[in-house]
């Protein structure tokens, strides 16, 4: 493979080369990994900084319809949009390539849009690395906006938030007890909460839901990276394409403020540092899944839970096997 | 040191022996650690399961006054109460032994109460281990309730929640924008939110604050370990000793439900497992703070933040030094 040629094609926004490059970074084969590293190194610093938007929403909130409508609005205004997905469950559901393309019928045929489903990896750490590399490839290919969507399984919101400049939480209208659906801690990450389906019979409910979340957001501590009024909650209707322009204006306001105040660069640098440490940690902790250490942990697990041995004493045994003296 | 004698004294609720034992588990000296391990092993399974109550509250919410009033109420009803603290910042403030004792003037002189300040350790992992061991010693010494308080610096709430059967969040009354003081994610841990200072001029504000938090709690997802109506928010006045009986009744209701449904035992087993894995992880990750790995990380840190090298490539270099092949 000619890396220089590959690099040039991606920089020239060749969609087929981009798709092939993403396949390359998703591969677990050793020779593919080596080529992927070489390609990423060749592309480092080239291209542009896209606006990376993380988007989380549980199934049923209308995430695909939102991405379709929102993406079409962006491409209509001349922006190039890439859509990536982080879904650690997609390996189980047998991949969702066809699903993603048919779910976004118009956007998938838009020459200014590029849609890529989640890599089929069960391990979230693996998905995270591949997705970060795919984002880097999309930036090299000159996309203005990279949307990274997740269904919010386990820790996947954190993974997406840590590779985004802006994090959106998409919610459905709900009344009373149904409101309990938001995972604790996820509001920590949201820059903007969008209550979708503010149309037809659900419009009033959507507005009330939005007011409830706006109230809840006000109870939380102000973050240094937010200008006055953020994080905020808004209503949209993906089906009726209502509220999308306003939502985009709010995103632009937030992002411009962060750029001007230096929070954008700071966040990018922090994210790079986060992933550096994270990969070192994960690589090191992977040792616990191997050989003697794995066996010792499995053997001690039950004894710890039943109180047969203290957690500290059990941990010391494992660390001795790994040839690391106890603290 | 005669461990058997030491053990017997603790089981006989000898307060001086308990205090000496806690000093022993707090020591970093290798011979002390060995003795501490031997003592803890000798006491394992002895004594009783105390009710471990975690309590978090920022400075100014009246935490000491609350512990004093709440603790006195418990001892008056015949219960023996131990108070431990997790405060990673206490090493900086030069320890708070005198502070804790004078802050709780009556409780500290109550023969059925035992107050112990936070160990002077800057490393939260160290504080966590010592506090868990101190809790085990208090259980062996037959305390009915062990209150573990934290000021909520960084991750200390998580540490306290993971060693508690019940987690209380103490808040002060606040109006409008002042409400933003709750750290995102901490509501995840709270079983009961207590809005303190529901007395005098602040009474109305406290009730409104309580209603606001009750509303916010209802927006969060129901947890399997909660009976109907939990987590909940209530008002108390530590100064006027109002609402404390009701709060204790609610705690008893919650805990009895958890005991009957098996969630109590399940949580204890999960916590033991959590600390086992946590200590193995921390012990292994401590390798990154040593020798060549430490130097490599420091050297790569800036290059990663400036985009001079990708996080993945930098991580691979570090893992090669640790003789661990990259994923």
UniProtKB/TrEMBL annotation, chains A, B:
Keywords, ordered alphabetically: Kinase, Transferase
A matching Pfam family: MeaB
GO molecular function per UniProt: GTP binding; GTPase activity; kinase activity
Domain AAA+ ATPase: 49-221
Isomerase as UniProt keyword: no
GO cellular component: cytoplasm
CDD domains xref list: MMAA-like (cd03114)
Entry's family note: Belongs to the SIMIBI class G3E GTPase family. ArgK/MeaB subfamily.
Protein known as: LAO/AO transport system kinase
Source organism (scientific name): Shimia gijangensis
